[in-house]
Amino acid sequence: MKAGDFSRADEFLVACPDPLPVEAIRPAVAVHLDRNRWAEALKLLNRIADRQVTDELHRTLARNMVCLQAHRPQVYRAVVEAHCVGEYRIAVGKNNRPILVQCRPNEPPLSLSADRDPIAALRKILTQLHTYWEKAQPIILHGLGDGYLVDALARHPVEALLNQQQAIYLVEPDPQLVRAVLMMHDYTGPDGPIEQERCFWFVGPDWEEQFAKTFFDDLYLSWPGAKVSLSVQAAAIAGRVAARSEKFAEVCRQWRQTARDYYAQLSREELMAVMGDNPPRPPRVLVLTTRFSTVLQHSCRDVARAFDQIGWEARLLIEPTDYHRQSPAALQYQVTHFRPDLVFQIDHLRPEHKDMFPENLPFACWIQDHLPNLMSEQAGASIGLRDFVLLAARPMYTRRYGYPQRQCIDLPKLTRVPSRPAQWANDGDDLVYVSNASGEPQALADGLIDQSRHAAEAARFVRAVCEELIATYKRGECVSTRFALEQLLTSVEKQTSVCVRPDEIREQLLRSIFNDLNNTLYRQQALRWAGQIAERRGLRLSLYGNGWADHPEFAEHARGVAAYGSELEELTRRAKINLQIVPYHFMHQRLLDGLVAGGFYLIRRHPLDQATQALGQFATEHLDDSIQSTDEALEHLAGDRREELVQLLERYAFMRSYGDPVATVQSWSRAGTLVDGRPFLPMYEQVAFDDAASLEQRILHYLEHPQDRRHVAEAQRQCVERRLTYETGMRRVVSGIAERLAEEPAA
């Protein structure tokens, strides 16, 4: 080694005894490093008890190179093949932190850490990146710099909504710099930037080709929003990234034109044929969803599965990982190359995608949640001839927001029939409730007030409404309908002398308070009854979902989160009694899924349940299908029948806040939620409760009579499976679209 003869030294090393004598370790390490035997070098370096600075640098390099070789072979090859000329040296900066200094001939040494203070420089950059970092938006580093930033971004991920992760793109044309940094920082481990898949390395002179190929191979990757310059070549890197971005955009434009050309010649007759009973080819449906949702992604998977079952070729478009995003490029590629006959999405209309989908391509939006992007006249006016809206509340959307009647297809909540064991035991907890409605009411109220802080009058009004709403529940009363909340708002307007206008603002305020605060108050009121009953009777109440462990009143009942799918199904089957508590009609997704899983439920009775049942039965007995509104019904009826309807309308006046009452029940009948005026579920009255007393009576009865639980659960499960499966629903959707295509005016 003293002579610099590494080949002969390597021969001697092979012949040396194992373990090596201590005095031979450092020369042996040098041989292994020269021969790129990183694992062997690391093993020997770990034996040195009194490691010096050079030993630690070599040890860090060896650890990193072993990790690179396993996880990033392309980067590894770039580093080991680079010709080392000693351009970079490691020095000591402020606070004894290692820094990297670039040393070039005829140039003064250049510290890659500003002011030789890497920690201060890191803090400054992270402050500038805060907005992007907080929202988990992708970041590109134009150069590796002194290596501190990529390590900080990797090891301290943002806690973003619904587990979103931030993609990090690192561009470093100089492999020598990478090698030097790998001596300073230990990047190994599952939290380090080498092993984490969300960190992308583009190293070496061919980094640009690597970069372009990565984005073309993985269309779910988002182009970086934030840019950080950490290299003297940063400007050149930025220019080449921008050029690649433009080339990528041009390819996407070509895809879009190809799709437009295809759909421009796609005739109505071909669409009608593929949606008919004997299609000439398998129809194709593109189902759009996102992994950053709690329930909708599972519903979309069930939709795609149902289309497969009825003979369609279904493709589900969803982000593969938490650092991916649903990008326009991924959508455009699928439209161009998959050529769907139908695009299907939950809670989003075609115009939200701008001009992504050609007008000739049918687009179905299934409204499962009443969201701001759907609840406006602008949304209703945006619906075109090939847009189809699937919903269970047609009258509300057509009357209030101007949705075209022709484009609406009645569709209720649906469920997937899971694989159930032949037998199971109800040996779980006595009472089980699954929900994320675990917020503390006062904290929710404070959030609503804070949203109105920009206007003092509005904030004062919202505070008064929230206080009155919370006080209502403390008195043991409740606000179960939008109509009742509207009355409360009117009362507070008089008390505060604040008039909420225009109507859009009032509607938005009503929706926010009902969905955010009243929804929680209504659910927690019934849970309070259940908790008191459980304590008094020695029963076990279990609450599953996010946040219950932090609620001061319900924390003792918190049991964590039950994962959607087989875990939740098993939990529901084993529970003696599941609870269904919602401030609207009880036919909620979780109830349907729980019933087909084999669970037994007690259901808090809601006024809408009774109203739609009574009006639905009246419509079945006295109105034909041609009558689609309350005005038509009153004009059609006479005498006692008309008076009976008037009395029903007066008794259930709150229904008008959801839409035309007669139109609503007729819509539900078409959707299959109501059948000949019969109850939504058999034996509904035996499982419904109104207050603490009736809940306790139901709990005690069904705990003492498990055979009654099994009988009710079986009857209700069979009812749901006959009428409300995804397969049945998707057949109804295809049939409805085909009928409307046949009725289209001539081109």
Indicate the topology.
Layout: H1 6-15, H2 25-34, H3 38-45, H4 53-71, H5 73-81, E1 88-92, E2 98-102, E3 110-111, H6 118-128, H7 130-134, E4 139-142, H8 148-155, E5 168-172, H9 175-184, E6 199-203, H10 207-217, E7 226-229, H11 234-264, H12 268-274, E8 284-288, H13 296-309, E9 313-317, H14 328-338, E10 342-346, E11 363-366, H15 377-381, E12 387-391, H16 394-401, E13 408-410, E14 431-434, H17 441-451, H18 456-474, H19 482-496, H20 503-537, E15 541-544, H21 566-574, E16 577-580, H22 589-597, E17 601-604, H23 607-622, H24 630-636, H25 639-651, H26 661-671, H27 684-687, E18 688-689, H28 692-704, H29 706-723, H30 726-742
Parallel strand pairs: 4-5, 4-7, 5-6, 8-9, 8-10, 10-11, 11-12, 12-13, 14-15, 14-16, 16-17, 17-18
Antiparallel strand pairs: 1-2, 2-3
Helix pairs in contact: 1-2, 2-3, 3-4, 4-5, 4-9, 5-9, 10-11, 11-14, 12-30, 13-30, 17-18, 17-20, 18-19, 18-20, 21-22, 22-29, 23-25, 23-26
